[in-house]
Design a protein that fits this description.
The complex is a heterodimer. By secondary structure, chain A is α/β, with parallel strands linked by helices. Helix content of chain A is about 35%, strand content about 15%. The longest helix of chain B is centred in the middle third of the chain and has 11 residues. The radius of gyration of chain B is 16 Å and the shape is globular. The chains are: A alpha/beta, B alpha/beta. At the A-B interface, α8, β12 and α10 of A face α3 and β3 of B.
Chain lengths: ~375, ~200
């Protein structure tokens, strides 16, 4: 372990809305009890002013940084979170929670429905990004944190950061939405619909009732393959695979010939080991329903005190920079204190996980300034 | 920041801007003027800059900046929603001068324009005696490297303001390290105008 490591990390669980006081969802339906899986890194200061909530993307989880016992790979944003890193755990208390509807320890369609004793499956209510953020707010309340220094996330995590602005602006000092949008375009909805159809066309899906039986693995794998194509760029695929051939595993004429085919199949196959098909359906719907366009981000006449750092990437065609610029347009109209940068990158949408140096150059000083101002005001 | 190390044009602009003012710096470069205005005047400053490298420098200084091209205008901003719009050494680099200046005048109460004087005597010597495009302290680039698309003199800008019926609220003529009083169109390297409509 070096001084840049967090050491071993364990996922923890917070359960609420267990009694009659259930969580009321945006749809009006109720859910309870609700469990959130979460991790924390660093320590909360006495003023409780150094807490940062990191928000994960579609297939992410609460394990953002450090190593779980026995793991060889660290959390999904370990390059950004840790001692001395962009989100410096020597200074900040970092929280990351899995979303509701998820399949990584939080309440989702695979969780047991207390009314039936069986998994919810399609009896699980529709959840939205606002519901995910509302659940996180319960966790923050539970931790006794009045105001987060920042909410930071990429892709779906960026949508959650924007939703924090819309839902609880008084609870955050800043927001860092990365590679994200105020609403999905028809193209983004279309890609999600292909993924959903792949799952629902798999006979093993069985209208969501597959828990304890064989699951719709081939449908989920195809959905993931489509996803991966949209996360890369023409250039990054050329650099990674070119037209390189691979060794065939069998004599089957349609066994993958090209490296890119092998890669996608591998990604699909490994995804089904760690992800739930119903969660895929529920969360892609949450992404598609999300819409904070127009004045929904900051209602007309409402004064909020939130600073913004908005980041997009040049080759990201899934969440193109015009969508980030639409966020900026809204912020300009309201004269919000904000920074926007379109980072040069060839990695496509995956860039938010890969362009660590550039993101560090922006996020580190942005947080620094906020934190120091807070210290001055407190002193 | 020790005020002695501050560029003369930045000092003058900082002197013009009132405390607590709301300022938009178009083509804010590395953010040093924004930082000065925040430190000295407690101004609320937002920048817009096109260069990637400069944005990283701005953010490192703690300034707020949008990555973008000022030629596309300021359409999101309501009329007269800033106290000052600054166009320091950036108006020469935009494609549509009229459009950008009109947008600045629409959005800002006052516009501060800083530019290099093409009619500076050394520039005239370069053109007249040496027969070459001028390279001076305020126009340091060779013809093939300059970011400037437009070359103007102090007299040109005076005429422009008269033609467009702009109010010139203040004018400063800058030498290397102090203001120039005598024949500014000949002896000033740079000029700073404060205009409104």
């Amino acid at each position: 372990m070096t001084d840049k490591d967090l050491g071993h990390i364990e996922t923890r669980f917070f359960t609420f809305a267990g009694g009659s006081d259930k969580l009321v969802l945006e749809s009006g339906q109720v859910l309870g009890p609700v469990t959130l899986a979460y991790e924390t890194y660093g320590s909360l200061n006495a003023e409780r002013s150094n807490a940062i909530l990191v928000l994960h993307a579609f297939s992410g989880d609460a394990h953002a940084a450090g190593y779980h016992e026995g793991d060889r790979k660290p959390g999904w944003w370990d390059s950004m979170i840790g001692p001395g890193k962009a989100i410096d755990t020597g200074k900040y208390f970092v929280i990351c929670s899995n979303v509701i509807g998820g399949c990584k320890g939080s309440t989702g369609p695979g969780s047991t429905n207390p009314e039936t004793g069986k998994p919810y499956a399609l009896d699980f209510p529709i959840v939205t990004i606002a519901d995910m953020v509302n659940a996180q707010r319960h966790l923050i309340d539970h931790m006794g944190i009045d105001r987060l220094l920042s909410v930071i996330g990429g892709s779906m995590g960026g949508m959650q950061a924007l939703q924090w602005v819309a839902s609880y602006p008084e609870r955050i000092r800043s927001a860092v939405p990365i590679a994200t949008t105020l609403k999905h375009s028809p193209q983004q909805i279309a890609f999600n619909e292909v993924g959903r159809q792949a799952i629902m066309a798999d006979p093993e899906w069985n209208r969501g009732d597959y828990y304890g039986k064989s699951s719709p693995e081939s449908g989920l794998a195809i959905a993931r393959m489509v996803g991966h194509i949209t996360y890369m760029s023409d250039k990054s695929m050329e650099a990674k695979f070119s037209r390189k051939l691979r060794e065939k595993e069998s004599g089957d004429i349609f066994d993958p010939d090209f490296e890119v085919e092998g890669y996608l199949r591998h990604q699909g196959d490994s995804f089904v080991q760690r992800f739930d098909a119903n969660t895929y359906l529920y969360i892609t719907k949450a992404l598609d329903y999300f819409d904070l366009s127009g004045q929904k981000l900051i209602p007309a006449g409402k004064k909020i005190d939130v600073r913004f750092l908005v980041i997009a990437f040049k080759s990201d065609w899934l969440y193109p920079s015009y969508q980030a610029q639409e966020v900026i347009r809204q912020l300009k109209m309201r004269h919000m204190d904000a920074t926007y940068m379109e980072i040069k990158s060839t990695y496509g949408h995956d860039a938010f996980l890969l362009e660590v140096d550039e993101e560090t150059m922006l996020i580190r000083p942005f947080l620094n300034r906020l934190f120091e101002e807070g210290e001055q005001n407190a002193g | 920041m020790p005020v002695d190390n501050v560029r003369l044009d930045h000092k003058i602009i900082c002197g013009v801007v009132e405390p607590e003012a709301h300022v938009l710096d178009l083509g804010c470069g590395d953010g040093s003027l924004m930082l000065l205005l925040t430190d000295q005047k407690n101004a609320r400053v937002q920048g817009i800059e096109v260069s990637d490298e400069k944005i990283y420098e701005c953010v490192a200084k703690g300034a707020s900046v949008f990555h973008g091209n000022i030629d596309t205008g300021l359409s999101e901003y309501p009329d007269k929603s800033f106290d000052y719009i600054i166009l320091n050494q950036s108006l020469q680099e935009v494609i549509k001068v009229d459009f950008v200046l009109n947008e600045a005048l629409r959005v800002g109460q006052k516009v501060i324009v800083g530019f290099s004087n093409f009619a500076y005597y050394k520039a005239r010597i370069d053109v007249f005696f040496r027969g070459r495009a001028p390279v001076t302290e305020s126009l340091p680039s060779q013809w093939h490297q300059t970011p400037n698309l437009h070359f103007l003199s102090i007299r040109d800008f005076e005429n422009y303001c008269a033609q467009k019926k702009l109010n010139v609220l203040d004018r400063f003529y800058l030498g290397e390290d102090k203001l120039v009083g005598f024949l500014p169109n000949l002896f000033a390297l740079n000029a700073i105008f404060v205009v409104s409509r």
